[in-house]
Structure formats: structure tokens, C-alpha cells
Amino acid sequence: MRLKGKVAMVTGSSRGIGNAVAKKYLEEGAKVVLIDRDEEGVKKSIEEMKQYGDAVGYAMDVTDRARVQEVFETVVKEHGTLDILVNNAGITQDAQLYKMKEEQWDAVINVNLKGVFNCAQEAVKIMRDKKTGSIINISSVVGLYGNFGQVNYAATKSGVIGMTKTMAKEVGRKNVTVNAVAPGFIMTEMTQKMPDNVLDMMREKAPLGRLGEPEDIANACLFLASDEARFVTGTVLSVDGGVVL
After folding, report:
1. What residue ranges define each of the domains in the chain, with the CATH number in brackets?
2. 25, 52, 98, 153: which one is catalytic?
3. Which parts of the sequence bind NADP(+) (predicted)?
């Protein structure tokens, strides 16, 4: 087991990519702390995860700084430490630039950037002291190449990449790695609701001719959290089927 004895936190883990990452980590021996702002979603996820391993969970809004601090303190108190953080929580509120409302911009910036900052800052406090740890930030190919109707989302995912590289430089001397994963078009509950013609277009853009699965991202997150990636930091791993070639 590649993560045996590790304590990992995954935000936005009640469904989609976060859920797949949590399952993968559990299967590889980690104790996983499930985080979601939906309390019922957390409870449901804990029950679902019992078959895979040792999972606990807390309801937490990543934009609520006081609550973030409280949960991180609780994790250390109840589970001893934190070895891995996956900053996966994120939202979209799409609109073309000239139609986008201020509240749409603010909401996406708040969750996708401030949320990453809040959680990473608390994690670093723990990891610096013990001189080991791994932070994985979920970005997107949209952050690398943009996407129609997503100026707010693209800004945040580009920002996540900049944050990742800066964090890696700041905490590297403390033996803490910080990396980003940039998913391409992944088949999640959200994409399944899209029209067939849009899904077909997304498939055609990828040289592999298909959409990715949440497990594809989970595998990348497993590598970056494992000892096999101990000399990998500040990198952006695109998992996109070649869509941006």
C-alpha cells in the first residue's frame, strides 16, 4: 500500500473527482478526511467509503476561514497529523464576459482561489513543523488554455497554478511538495448532464477519442502523494487525453 499510515484530506470529496481521489487513497492505506460543505453529503460519503478503508469527515465551507482553522485543528487533535492535502473543492458559474454578473465572478474567485489559500495555509503550518507533506491542487486545462464562457473559472485555475509554483518554492526547504493536476474533459455527474453533441465535441478534441474518468485524476493524485514523487514539486500534471496538444 503506497499511502499506508498517512492521513489525507480531500476537499469537495462527496462526488466526482474528489470522491474518486478519496477512494483511491483509502484503497492505498491512508486514513482519509472527507471534506464538503454539505453535511448530509459528508455523512453519505463516509458510509459509502467504509468498504474501502478508514474514512472520517467534516462539513466545511473552504471560504469560511474560522471553520477551516477549526477543522484543521480538529484533524490534528483527533488523528495526530496531516500528511496530504488535496485542494479539489471548486465551482463554476459560466457566462460570457459581457454577460457575467459581479456575483458570479466573486463566487468563483472566493471558492476556487480563496478556498485553496485557506486550506493550503493551514496545511503548511502542520507540514512545516514536521518537515514532510504533500499538497496537491486541482487546476484545469482551462487554466492553461482558457475556455469560452469561463473567464472567471479560467482565472481561478490559472491562479491555482501560480499559487502552486510559489508555494513549492516557499516550502521546499521544509521537505513539503506542492503540485497541481490539470484535468481535461472528465466524465463526472456535471458533464453527464451536458447534451450529447457537446460530449461528442469534447471527445473529438482529444487524440485518445474519449473523455477521462475520475479515476484517471485519482491515479495522478496518488502518484503525487506517494513517496515515488518525493522529488517532484512545483509541477503541473495535465491529465487530459492529449486534448491540448
Report:
1. 7-185+215-234 (3.40.50.720)
2. 153
3. 12-15, 88, 153-157, 186
